[in-house]
Amino acid sequence: MTLAAVQKKFILHWGEMGSRWGISRSMAQMHALLYLSAEPLTAETIAETLDIARSNVSTGLKELQGWGVVKVTHRMGDRRDYFESLGDVWDMFRLILLERKRREADQTLTLLRECEAEASSGQTADPATAAKVAAMRELFELGCSFGDAAGKLSPSAMRRVFQLGEAVFRFTGS
Q1: C-alpha dihedral over 163, 164, 170, 174, to 10 degrees?
Q2: Residue-wise pLDDT tens digits, 7-29
Q3: pLDDT tens digit sequence for 104-156
Q4: Do residues 43 and 54 touch, judged by C-beta distance below 8 A?
């Protein structure tokens, strides 16, 4: 598969951003390639196009499927698996938001609740620590609540929420 210059630029940048977001560069590049591809691709094609080891492609594809942003398809008469990305960026964003919330924010919220209970008992922390942990817990609870609500939105509704957010920022002078 031959990539156009703009495709290479996008894929390379997506890989760089992926490593900043805590996922492997190669996994982010695979996602970018599948997102830009007009047709589902085999793991072999992905490996050859991106010059990534086949084992890394298998691992990355499983992880991307776990996130829900890549799915397997098949073709009649062909036993190979083909992979494609979700095409709707708002649906992708929604799924990534929900998965990051589940993997990161929910666990942090649980820990903050435990720390708040421990700090509030007065046995192991000073009042200032208890207040700071409580403030952080409140922030995470609000964020998780927003994430839960956003996760239930359709892609078009999520887009409208973002557009409404712009209007709110303009209204408040921010």
Answers
A1: -90
A2: 999 999 999 999 898 899 999 99
A3: 999 999 999 999 888 877 676 788 888 899 999 999 999 999 889 988 999 89
A4: yes
Measured CA distances, 122 to 113, 126, 127, 136, 137 (Å): 15, 7, 7, 18, 17
Locate tokens 């609740």: which residue? 113
Tokens of 112: 């903050």
Among 13, 15, 11, smallest CA distance to 23 is for: 15
In angstroms, the CA 79 to CA 116 distance is 54
Q: What is the DSSP letter of 102?
A: I
Give the Cα separation of 80 and 76 in Å (integer).
Answer: 10
- Beta-strand runs (E) in the chain: 41-42, 70-75, 78-85
Provide the CATH topology of domain 5-85.
Arc Repressor Mutant, subunit A (1.10.10)
Residue 10 has φ and ψ, to the nearest 5°, of -65, -50
Domain spans in the chain, listed from the N-terminal domain onward: 5-85, 89-172
Q: Which residues on neighbouring strands pair with residue 83, listed in sequence order?
A: 41, 72
CA 119 to CA 113: how far, in whole Å?
Answer: 10
Strand, helix or coil for residue 121:
coil
Sequence length of the chain is: 174
